[in-house]
Amino acid sequence: MDATIVEIKIGSHLPITSLSLCESRYDWRVPSADLQKLLNSGPNVIIADGLNAAYIAWNSPRTSFCGRKLFNYLRGINGIKVLALLSPTHINWNSWDTVLDLAILKRIPFHSQIIVLNSLNSDHLPGILTLGTGSFPINSPEHFFTIWENFRHILSFKPLPLQNFLR
């Protein structure tokens, strides 16, 4: 399993831990201990990307073993919402088109939606998750910039906050 973790701070709300996961094996068995660690990585968590867990309730034409196991696991956790795309994210020319990409939200205090982008020439289509925070939009690049010297200094003297996260 590959994971990228980003922490997002919006106004006075508690931070949102956003995790992009990708499991490329189709025989993935949803490692519950790892998933529990990820869900417990912050008070508000988003786990999204290619989980390869097809489930009829998540807009797939069939349910996979991984989808059933993930659905049953998440069903028992309070504050969890699963957002599934309305159209397939995996186009299979020989079989069923399937929704393999999901967003699992834990205690996210904002309205959210997820859509598929049909802009790539690939059999896997990306999705975009949007959070309606009620804050002002960043319309121009000058509102959002990085001071690279400060960034390098912080990285060289301060350990990353989630470095021991999955041990």
UniProtKB/TrEMBL annotation:
Residues 32-126 form the Endonuclease/exonuclease/phosphatase domain. InterPro entries: Endo/exonu/phosph_ase_sf (IPR036691), Endo/exonuclease/phosphatase (IPR005135). Pfam families: Exo_endo_phos_2 (PF14529). GO terms for molecular function: catalytic activity. SUPFAM superfamilies: DNase I-like. This is Endonuclease/exonuclease/phosphatase domain-containing protein. It comes from Araneus ventricosus.
